[in-house]
Amino acid sequence: MNAQILIESLVRQFTVLIAQLATSGGIRAPLSQVANQVFLDLARELEEQGVSRKVSADMFGMALRAYIRKVRRLSEGQTEKGRTLWQALLDFVRTEGLVTRERVLKRFSFDDEQQVTSLLHDLTESGLVFCSGSGKAAVYRAASSDELDRLLQLSDDSGLDELCWVLIYREGPLTAERLAGLLGRSAATTGEIVDRLLASGRVRESAAGSLLAQDFVIELGAASGWEAAIFDHVQAVVQTVCQRLNDVAAGGKQASSVGGSTYSFDIWPGHPLEPTVKAQLAAMRQRLSALRQDVDGYNREHGLAREYQQVVTYLGQCVMDRNTGSQTNDEAEHEQT
């Protein structure tokens, strides 16, 4: 297997996904930390898999000393999101307390003015900075941690409750401290979310004080919770691929129960099988929902075994436009005229 080609191809696909999420609905999500976070997470995951630091450094094409320095710097400075212009602007506004646009432009006079004003606009659109007034007399103030938490609470479509729910379901049992770390939110905000989940019955607390969830369901077409659903989709795919790779290395003993299949159907408007093909997702959803209800009913009646397996089946369907590259008679005639 040419792992390098596969890795590069997967990185491209996840880059597309991240870019789409970062701009969905007109937002401009901050990305300054992504590269550093990817490096640090990869380094940690390699270490957990038993790869030595010397080998990891070589895999990144770095000298061991430089690799160790970078890991230490990023690990010790989680709140330091790099020094891009975006971050430098945010740090400057935070330091100043209240600052006019004219003062900001003067401070960053060596940078392109249009880029600076554009980034200021992005900071205000993302809620990280508040703005009052307009033009060069506009005044900026950075949002505090409490205000950022409050903004999340006021956002009807933030989906934070559902994201917290799916993390507990997939990663649990979780302590409140660990959950706050996964969410990247304060203990107070996480506590409020957990209280709502406990009150609704979606989450329960174990005798040891850890958080557990028996199920996770986002209703089809729900206005909130799509973030959690996307996370659950991607995690299911990643877990399936990782387990399949491990299974292949072990001789393929789980080939019948672990793995994935992708089917493509070439159809067009008027194709006799078009309705059948496009209805497959709905049909499979209905069949698996019925099966889940049967399993849940049995489990409620008999109780869960002390140790059990969770079988995760993922379904996805998309429609991509294609062209054969050949000309129709009408297209050929149009080119000749």
How does this structure look, described?
The protein is mainly α and 337 residues long. The protein has four domains: 3-76; 85-143, Arc Repressor Mutant, subunit A (Orthogonal Bundle); 151-249, Arc Repressor Mutant, subunit A (Orthogonal Bundle); 262-322. 57% of the residues lie in helices and 4% in strands. The strands form two sheets. It has a three-stranded antiparallel beta sheet. A hairpin with a 6-residue loop joins strand 2 and strand 3 (139-142). Helix 3 (53-59) packs across helix 4 (64-76). The longest helix is centred in the C-terminal third of the chain and has 24 residues, at 226-249. The model is unreliable at 77-83 (pLDDT under 50).
In round numbers, the mean pLDDT is 82
Major sheet summary line: 3 strands, antiparallel
Molecular shape: globular
Class by alpha and beta content? mainly alpha
What's the helical proportion of residues?
A: 55-70%
- In the CATH hierarchy, what is the architecture of the largest domain at level 2? Orthogonal Bundle
The number of domains: 4
Distance between the termini: 51 Å
Query: Strands of the biggest beta sheet: in what spatial order?
Result: 1-3-2
CATH superfamily of the largest domain: Winged helix-like DNA-binding domain superfamily/Winged helix DNA-binding domain
- Could you name the ranges where pLDDT drops below 50 across 5 or more consecutive residues? 77-83
* Total count of helical runs of at least 4 residues: 15
* Strand portion: under 5%
What name does CATH use for the topology of the largest domain?
A: Arc Repressor Mutant, subunit A
CATH class category name of the largest domain: Mainly Alpha
Q: Could you spell the SSE succession in H and E letters? A: HHHHHEHHEEHHHHEEHHHH
Q: Using only CA atoms, what is the Rg?
A: 25 Å
Counted beta strands:
5
